[in-house]
Amino acid sequence: MTLEQAAKQLAELGHPTRLGLYRELVKAGKSGLPVSDLQSRLAVPGSTLSHHINRLVQVGLVKQVREGRVLRCFAQYEQLNGLIGFLREECCSKECC
């Protein structure tokens, strides 16, 4: 992961609504959540939620899949693990821990 990619992902997660949304998706596990469930859990208007989801999709942290009439969102764990790994890369390299 590049510094620029990590910065973009962290910037998108730096918004309270997007961080809450992402946490709900991480808690949901591999089954993800329909957008309607996210809207209910977060009490966010649909257009606002769509905007926040799109921002997370753009940086690769969320994936959306249409299942008939349902739009389901999934946390992208590979991206999350990559971001965490990037942040931990230098840990203890200078005996800071």
From TrEMBL:
<dbReference type="InterPro" id="IPR011991">
    <property type="entry name" value="ArsR-like_HTH"/>
</dbReference>
<dbReference type="GO" id="GO:0003700">
    <property type="term" value="F:DNA-binding transcription factor activity"/>
</dbReference>
<dbReference type="InterPro" id="IPR001845">
    <property type="entry name" value="HTH_ArsR_DNA-bd_dom"/>
</dbReference>
<keyword id="KW-0804">Transcription</keyword>
<dbReference type="InterPro" id="IPR036390">
    <property type="entry name" value="WH_DNA-bd_sf"/>
</dbReference>
<protein>
    <submittedName>
        <fullName>Transcriptional regulator, ArsR family</fullName>
    </submittedName>
</protein>
<keyword id="KW-0805">Transcription regulation</keyword>
<dbReference type="Pfam" id="PF12840">
    <property type="entry name" value="HTH_20"/>
</dbReference>
<dbReference type="InterPro" id="IPR051011">
    <property type="entry name" value="Metal_resp_trans_reg"/>
</dbReference>
<dbReference type="InterPro" id="IPR036388">
    <property type="entry name" value="WH-like_DNA-bd_sf"/>
</dbReference>
<keyword id="KW-0238">DNA-binding</keyword>
<dbReference type="GO" id="GO:0003677">
    <property type="term" value="F:DNA binding"/>
</dbReference>
<feature type="domain" description="HTH arsR-type">
    <location>
        <begin position="1"/>
        <end position="95"/>
    </location>
</feature>
